[in-house]
Amino acid sequence: MSERATERQKYSAYCRDHIEEFGFELADEASHVIRGWAGRSFVVLLIASSALTFRAAESLMNPLASLTLWVYTVPIALVMLFPIFINLISTLERYSALVIDAICASSMMGFAFAVYILLTQAGGEGAGGDAQLLSQQLSAQVNFILLLATAISYHASYQATLIRNVFITLLFSVLLFIVGSEFLQLSMLQLIQGFVSGSAVSWIFYEGVRARFYSRSTDASTRQHLYKQLSKLVYPHQLQMIKLGEELESTMPQKEGKAIVNVFDVQRSTEIKHEKTQEFFMSVFESFLDICMLGYEHTPLRSRAFRLKETGDGFISTVGYPFLPTESRSLADSAVATALSMFDVFNKQVEKFNYSRPIKAAIGLAYNSIQGTFQSGGIRSYDLFGEAIVQASKYEELRKNPQLWSLFSEEAKRQGLEYFHVLIVQEVVYNSLSPAYRDLFTEVDLATLVTTGVDMLYDPEARFIYFHVLD
Questions:
Q1: Within this chain, do residues 319 and 272 fall inside the same structural domain, yes or no?
Q2: Does 202 share its domain with 264?
Q3: What CATH number has the domain bearing residue 284?
Q4: How far apart (Å, rounded) are the C-alpha atoms in residues 264 and 158?
Q5: 280 and 391 together in one domain
Q6: What's the burial of 75, exposed, middle or buried (CB within 10 Å: 0-12/13-18/19+)?
Q7: How far is it, in rounded angstroms, from Cα 352 to Cα 391?
Q8: Would 235 be classed as within a structural domain?
Q9: Which among 203, 196, 135, 209 has a CA at the least distance from the CA of 169?
Q10: Pairing assessment for the beta strands 421-425 and 361-374 based on DSSP bridges
Q11: Does 312 lie in the same domain as 222?
């Protein structure tokens, strides 16, 4: 089978499977044809034809000559009134294909009526000798008229178009018989030629319409699929900016700024043994993303937090950069509130996970410089780097220090907790908190821990750390 035939079968099957959408598309095209330049040109052509027919009838001194000016009143009215009616009743537009059929049928009726007037010599003088010649001239136009009426159709099924063409041809034959049986016999060959040629043209037209619909629909589906997949890689405001012609690199901030980085990690995650461990972490991170995207907008660019990355059993986010905070309270309050929300949804996911042992987590918060960047080559994903990320990671890892863990456990025991989450924050974050949030934290003087191996070289100015344990 040739490639062309294969392609034809492909869009033929596609149109059959999407017959309703195809029908709507054809109705829309038919509406544009009637309301557009084609419809206006058709009206001008009918008016010109009426004028020429009137002159011909008048030259033959036909007493019915004035009627030829009105033979195409119906098709002209259909074309002219159609835009008005669909503005009043929009649902009428779906019947545009039938309106075109009505225009074609009424045009043929107008032509038949004009022929009847021209061939009627009642009261006319000097026209009798020209009757036979006039009949031959008019019958020669039958082919062309029928071709125009049957060539263009906007039905979703070609079977409907073929039935339409047969009906139009039979109707035209009846009209010509009314004009005169002799005229019908004279025009029989023209009728057959008009039907065959019109049906052939209508098939070519139908194939072209189907191919265009298939191409446009599949292109739109492809674009929609690409858009949907790209939306998994970038934020909505980036998609909008790219759509408007912006470069990817201009869609996210790249200047240095300040932010509080949140590093989340699950305690003893390697000890979790479950067949759905991966699904558990995916659910947790999806919930975290929902928290981060609260209040997202792009004029200006802001949200509750920015998801930087997922690290197997960890999640890193930022508050204050590259997205502005959504709340008027301090950056530190927003960061601690976000961290507590993460612990809350984490507990809900753990409950759904129904693991045999408690699963707890830790978060480290640190405030410092941070900067955005796009990778220099290949897939240019957006990333952040800076001291704040390193320090937040180190603060979260402080839970692994034996003496600090002992302090955390003592505080948890005082609260009646055997297993607990822990939130560890930098001194600058604590000092920026409102009193209500400060009261949650316990202070640790690092000077008392110098001999225990607590390495604070990554934050040499640190004198205290603050922690909060919770269930």
A1: yes
A2: no
A3: 3.30.70.1230
A4: 63
A5: yes
A6: buried
A7: 32
A8: no
A9: 196
A10: parallel
A11: no
Same-domain check for residues 18 and 120: yes
Q: How far is CA 176 from CA 6, 62, 194, 277, 339, in A?
A: 43, 20, 14, 82, 86
User: Are 207 and 58 in a shared domain?
Assistant: yes
Residue 382 inside a domain? The answer is yes
**Band of residue 274 on the pLDDT scale cut at 50, 70, 90:** confident
- Using the CB atoms, write b or e for 267-279: b if 16+ within 10 Å: beeeeeeeeeeee
The last residue of one of the domains, among 183, 211, 228, is 228
User: What tokens appear for 233 in the block?
Assistant: 């890689």
Q: Rounded to an integer, what distance in angstroms lies between the CA atom of residue 112 and that of residue 37?
A: 26
Determine the Cα–Cα distance for residues 17 and 19; give it in Å rounded to an integer: 6
Residue 357 near residue 269 (C-beta atoms within 8 A): no
Q: Give the integer Cα–Cα distance in Å for 386 and 255.
A: 12
Q: Is residue 49 part of a domain?
A: yes
Distance set, CA 427 to CA 36, 54, 365, 368, 431 (Å): 72, 99, 10, 12, 6
**Domains held by the chain: number:** 2
Q: Do 44 and 157 have their domain in common? A: yes
pLDDT 10s digits, 123-148: 344 444 456 777 777 777 888 888 88
% of the chain at pLDDT higher than 70:
90
Structure tokens belonging to residue 105: 């049928």
C-alpha 387/C-alpha 93 separation (Å) is 63
Euclidean distance between CA atoms 116 and 293, whole angstroms: 76
Distance CA 100, CA 112 (A): 18
**For the chain, percent helix, then strand, then coil, each to nearest 5?**
65, 15, 25
Say which DSSP state 93 is in.
G
Whole-structure pTM value? 0.59
Whether residue 244 is contained in a domain is answered as: no
- Residue 341 domain boundaries: 255-470
Q: Name the domain boundary from 228, 263, 298.
A: 228
DSSP 207: H
Please indicate, yes or no, whether residues 338 and 433 belong to a single structural domain of this protein. Answer: yes
